[in-house]
Amino acid sequence: MVEKRGTSGILAHVVMVLGVLIVAFPLYLAFIASTHTAQEIVQTPMPLLPGSNMWASYKAALFGSENSAGSNAPVAHMMWVSLVTALVISIGKISISLLSAFAIVYFRFPFKKTVFWAIFVTLMLPVEVRILPTYKVLSDLNMLNTYAGLTVPLIASATATFLFRQFFLTVPEELTEASRMDGASPMRFFIDVLLPLSKTSIAALFVIQFIYGWNQYLWPLLATTSEDMYPVVVGIKRMIAGGDSQNEWNVVMATAILAMLPPAIVVVAMQKWFVKGLVDTEK
Description:
mainly alpha
């Protein structure tokens, strides 16, 4: 019995290591490419060890390169645009979803179930389905190439509303009665009772929504035409133009590595809260 456990444990570790290597190898190649010159990258075979051009590549990526065949926008500014967009989308989604779920669960008003299902049905209408009318509205309101244009159409979230509604339904009714007996207003009950109980769920959703906002590509591609408003994901695509010999692939790979850092930092920094928010059922 012990021997079987040992064999299965070794096999599990081997599979896990192989999986990590398969996932990490493209990232390793991107990092290696960012340390070489563009001429060295296109050679056959491509170098597999770090080169001596690392600082020059990352400097050109962060502050712009005049030799690029595509976009010359500084990656530092593009990352700032992505950061603002991701934060506004994540915080906006969580705020609106908390309030809407609170109203659906704790308030009585006509057609309450109809309102909830109307919100839930919007899950079948992602940005890709309503992208043309949304673009038309933003264009008429002169919101293209603005932070509002990048974030407002993506703030509403039926998924987060549903998750918070399900969580609020599990909050003991005794807490609601105790707050009412103490004379607490609905918003005081929301702020002092529901928000502290929801902190792990909020943290888990923040991580998910931050990555969702950071990785947005299709909507920013349509809503931005100025290099000053490119998020970094769109900026990477704009940097690629022409054939292999015309692109500074070292700068493109450096940009890709830089673009991965903020989401990775958020996941690592909030890993404990993220996991707890997904699995913790204590109230």
